[in-house]
Design goal:
Distance between the termini: 114 Å
Number of helices: 5
Number of strands: 7
Largest sheet: 5 strands, antiparallel
Structural class: alpha+beta
Order of helices and strands: HEEHHEEEEEHH
């Protein structure tokens, strides 16, 4: 006597039911294959990537003389004396430089406020007075008030 196997039986043996595969196909969840340490590391790397993107976007906001910025690492608010590439200098003591990427714009100075501060700096003993004079001359603004 010859045994015949039905198509339904063959399908069940192959792991296929009437509504699709009986065994889930595709990759296993990462936590099941790599453990929780991997997920935490992935989250840390993603957070670092978001921070780098935010720092790059900081260049899109133009910070200039007279603007008020908040320095993230110290939490201090500064008035900007000048910006030179990736660095800025603030008004106050002690003088110094900070990364523009570490600062967030709080208040943008108007054009009149900016020119007024540049003129004031040009006549002062501040460490950025020479730079203020150069900026005023480059923009064609008279140094005398």
């Amino acid at each position: 006597m010859k045994r015949t196997t039905s198509i339904a039986t063959l399908a069940l043996l192959a792991g296929v039911g009437p509504r699709g595969p009986l065994i889930p196909t595709g990759p296993a969840p990462r936590s099941a294959t790599r453990g929780d340490g991997y997920d935490r590391e992935r989250q840390r790397l993603a957070a670092a990537k978001r921070e780098r993107k935010a720092r790059r976007r900081a260049w899109l906001v133009t910070i200039d003389t007279g603007d008020v910025v908040k320095h993230r690492p110290t939490g201090e608010e500064w008035i900007v004396a000048y910006v030179d590439g990736p660095h800025l200098s603030w008004l106050g003591w002690p003088p110094g430089l900070a990364l523009v990427a570490d600062c967030r714009l709080v208040k943008k100075a108007t054009a009149a406020e900016r020119v007024g501060l540049l003129r004031e700096l040009a006549h002062s003993q501040h460490h950025s007075s020479a730079r203020a004079r150069e900026t005023l001359e480059r923009e064609g603004v008279t140094v005398a008030a």
